[in-house]
Amino acid sequence: MAEQPAVNRQVLGSNPSQGAEISQASQRLVSYSHVMIKSFKSQTMSMRIMRIWLGVTWIYAGWVKASDSGFLKQGSPTYIGTQLAAYASQSPIGFILNHFVEHAFIIGIFVMLSEFAIGIATLFYVAPLTAALGGLSMSIGLWLSSSFHSVPYFLASDTAYAVLWTAYFFSITKTKSKKRGSVEVNLDRRGVLRGAAVATGAILASVAGNTFAKGAVPMNTAASKAGKKIVKLTALKVGGTKNFIAANGAPAVLFRTKNGVFAYSAICTHQGCTVDYSAQYKALLCPCHGAMYDPFSDAKVLSGPTNRPLDKVKVAISGNWIVQA
């Protein structure tokens, strides 16, 4: 009878080491909660507003990508590779984006997870300086990629977010400097665990978004805006070409000859880089891997690592305009 209490303790799982582990886990959760609540209380109202807005917006941005089944699917109008190729045709860093297109799937995964991680870290105040720098970098990257040519400049939301992240970053820096006399980076065990928790949360959020994703619409069946004006007929002489963005958001190249007008997608059929017309070779050339297409013969492949011609884009002459048909 004297041994019964010991047996009961083992059956009930009240081993001292197990109890200590449970107690430590509980203490960590309580500690993290206290840090988050304390950080909100110690911040000014303006910092709280910026923190909530930026955190929620970045999480939502990640969710939009995770719940879009076409974001990582080649051939979809929302495919990350198609977006990068479209940006490259106009961006000042187009030469970089063209190389990104070659690894579009990996870039898409990285962007999606980064948006989730930055948003979660901002809301829960985990590595706030790193999160703010990450958000600032993404905003600047988007500005250079997609909205660099927006006129007037204040129509580009990416610049506004870059300014907002900058203001938030310096607000955090000022707060930390007042408390500690200098800005420190937390690389202790607790900081590593919090970082791992953020990374785990980003992955779980991506998986959750994917479960709600609907089937992607193939590029060739995507709804297009027939009649979209491309250029005035008088502005494009016979023998001339013009780069434009098709109704599906992809870059395209328009040609005018004495026989009429025609256009092709500017997305290389090898790995999605943006092709451009070379008057010297009278061909469409891919800068990434050297594919060459003949625009005067249905964009058939002349040379390079692909055997599929460029996709056609339907265009027509309507009055004084060349439009997408």
Keywords:
2 domains, 325 residues, alpha+beta, elongated, Rieske Iron-sulfur Protein, 4-stranded antiparallel beta sheet, 14% strand
Description:
This protein is an alpha+beta fold and 325 residues long. The protein folds into two domains: 168 residues, no CATH class; 102 residues, 3-layer Sandwich (Rieske Iron-sulfur Protein). Helix content is 50%, strand content 14%. The chain is built from nine helices and eleven strands. A hairpin with a 2-residue loop joins β10 and β11. The chain is elongated. The N and C termini lie far apart (91 Å).
Query: Would you list the SSEs in sequence order as H and E?
Result: HHHHHHHHHEEEEEEEEEEE
The rounded Rg comes to 27 Å
Low-confidence stretches: 1-14, 181-185, 216-224
For the biggest sheet, the summary is: 4 strands, antiparallel
Structural domain count: 2
Give the class from helix and strand content and strand pairing: alpha+beta
Strand content bin: 5-15%
Which geometry do the CA atoms define?
elongated
Strand order of the largest sheet: 2-3-4-9
What does the average pLDDT come to? 82
Helix content: 40-55%
Beta strand count: 11
Amino- and carboxy-terminal Cα gap: 91 Å
* Helix segment tally: 9
